[in-house]
Amino acid sequence: MKKLIISLSLLTGFVAFAQQNPKKDTVKTENIKEITMTKKIFKKESDRFVFDVAASPQAKGNTAFGLLKETPLVSSTDDKTLKIAGKSNAVIFIDGRVTQMDAESLVAFLKNTPAENIQKIEVITVPGSEYKVESSDGIINIVLKKKSSNGLNGNLRLNNEQNYHNAAAAGISLNYRKDKLGVNANFNGSENIREQYYILRNGNASAANRTEGNLTDPNQNLGGYLNLDYQINDNNSVGLTFNSRANRSYGSKANLFNTNTDLTSGETDYSLTKSEENARSYNNSLNLNYELKTDTLGSKLNLNAAGLLYRRFQTSENFTILADKNQNQVENLLKIMQAQPQLIDNFSATADYIQKFKKDFTVSVGGNFNNTKTDNDTKYNSFDYRSGNSASMPNHFLYDESIFGGYVTVDKVFSPKFSAKAGARYELTTSEGRSDNAQDENLRNIKRDYDKLLPYLSLNYTINEKNTLSYAFSSRMRRPSFWELNPVKNVLTEFNYIQNNPFVKASSVYTHELTYMFKNSYFLILNHSLTKDQITQVPLQGVIDGKNQLRYIRTNFGDKQEMSAMIGMQKSFFKGYLTSNFNIGVQRNVNDGNLDTDPLTGDVFPMYENHIASNSLLIQTNNNIRLDEKKTWFLGVNYFYVDKQQIELGQLNSLMSLDLNLKKLWNEWTFSLGVNDVLKTNKVVIEDLQSNGNYNFIDQNQYNQGVELTIVYNFGNQKVKKVRNIESADKDIKSRTN
């Protein structure tokens, strides 16, 4: 059921302007110093936007996470994830190396890292060939200040949030340096209960179904990391990084009331669906790094080897109960018991070499290898109370995947006004899936090998001191998550479930982006992306074995185009008392896909088609108001609006959210109180009507309105040099375990 909850919540993952899962944008913290003509606080370089925060009072008393949310083109709608305008995801790099932590550990790390340690923040909207990121991912690179003081410092963070339920979190981060040795560690924990309420309707001229009720998902999390870095001499460094996270979700429940009407006879049946799931997961990884500087120009060799162990254990019971129209239970009808363990073992290795030449010329070459083995020994048992019949459908699915990759990138600054970067990445993937117990012969052995050449180009031209123009082209791949490939179904009700699909293949994404910047404060971004073999979730609906069924099938669903134009501003007014970050744009989505067959069972449904284009207006503004002369009180007023638009599942109704935040700085303490989704407008509603008469309606309330209190305390020697952060060899695999 947890995967079902996650899957339905991901219906919000559609917006290209940093609003993928619009929930809240709570912590808007410090004042930004007024931009002057003597220093470029925000500027466009060859392949990235650069936000220079080294001398800004914005960083004082802030955390890295809070500072990132103040960065132009970057936002957070849920205080947990960071988004880049026009991108589906933001990958965090530190000093040019990707962080290897899972999502929750990364958030804890950023929220326990003092912002005073940051020199600048780089936003790379179209990453080059040397970056191992997927699909339309963007990169946020945090460049730390270089300080050499020995000593110990740390950061303590306490957080409490009241939405439908209360949630609490705490974390502590320590950073120690003694001469050539650096140690960085973090430990954090959280406890929360996620509540959601659904109204689901589907049907046609013959039948109408309605499901309504709540899903409650409690979670307990413990995690942390340990980074060790030792500088052997001026040219040689070694590092070791260990990350660990455990999640426990016991007693996750669904209570749903179902109404099924035969429109031909007029008869209506009522039933209850009650399910309970127990799940726990463990994610542990270890990375060993070696770095060799080969000259004084900055040339270097970087080697990584990593191992990842992921374990998830999940059991669930789902009951269908005959009821009357008042939801009174009559008798048990059906019981479905599932066990869905997932074991993932990965070994990864990377080698990167950067050769810098005189006259601003750089050549980068590298390669990577990933091998992943997954073991999914799924059990599915059902019992019919009326007939006394039972059925067992076990499925032991083994998946083995190897990825070989290599790249070359050339970067040249031709003049102070013009620079260019070009490269290509080649990737070869071999995979084999085996289903030992499958009755379907097609699942016994699924072997797929494919390769792809992915070119990249970036051009940047400074017209004059006030005007900059740049263009970038990128090609990427998106591979399905490992759990999406496991050929099992996640049951919501007896005839309404999600079906995973081992036949899903990787999709290809091609992106063009044109950017114009004026006075380092105003910008225009034009973007076009084409996704071939889009990986998504498609609703198939029809009468199978005499019952109207709705199956959400994971599949490749044709092609999709996204075109967008955005105008933005990042500027301070009234001598720094007001700082405003404002974006407004239009987006056009063009869908082109159809499906009529369940790829696992072969059941044929009426054709589901989506050949619809939509145009949408998008608005986002974040405003910080300094309330006193001493710069200790701040008010944040943040708002976003997303117009209705067409996605794969149908038409998504408009969304908006108003969030308010009050912050107080007191010595080394920071106190923040926020109210999220003040107007209760952040709710997902999707409607779809097919030409054949089938309709589908989804109303999802995640109870986003709430109050949040955060307390942060910084202690110790704040001048301690941060540990050298190391790019993990297994970082691509981690994203696919989520």
Quick description:
It is found in: Cell outer membrane. With 738 residues, the protein is mainly beta. It has 5 helices and 41 strands.
List low-confidence stretches: 4-39
Q: Please give the number of β-strands.
A: 41
Oligomerization category of the chains in this entry: single chain
- Please tell me what the overall shape is: globular
Please describe the topology of this protein.
Elements: H1 2-9, E1 42-45, E2 48-52, H2 64-68, E3 74-75, E4 83-84, E5 90-94, E6 97-98, H3 103-111, E7 118-124, E8 138-144, E9 151-162, E10 166-178, E11 181-203, E12 207-231, E13 236-262, E14 268-293, E15 300-323, E16 329-339, E17 342-357, E18 361-384, E19 390-392, E20 395-413, E21 418-435, E22 445-462, E23 467-478, H4 482-485, E24 489-493, E25 496-499, E26 507-518, E27 522-532, E28 535-544, E29 547-556, E30 559-573, E31 578-597, E32 604-610, E33 613-626, E34 633-642, E35 645-647, E36 650-652, E37 655-666, E38 669-676, E39 684-689, E40 695-701, E41 706-716, H5 731-734
Parallel strand pairs: 5-8, 25-29
Antiparallel strand pairs: 1-2, 2-7, 3-4, 5-6, 7-8, 9-10, 9-41, 10-11, 11-12, 11-40, 12-13, 13-14, 14-15, 15-16, 15-17, 16-18, 17-18, 18-19, 18-20, 20-21, 21-22, 22-23, 23-26, 24-25, 26-27, 27-30, 28-29, 30-31, 31-32, 31-33, 33-34, 34-37, 35-36, 36-39, 37-38, 38-41, 39-40
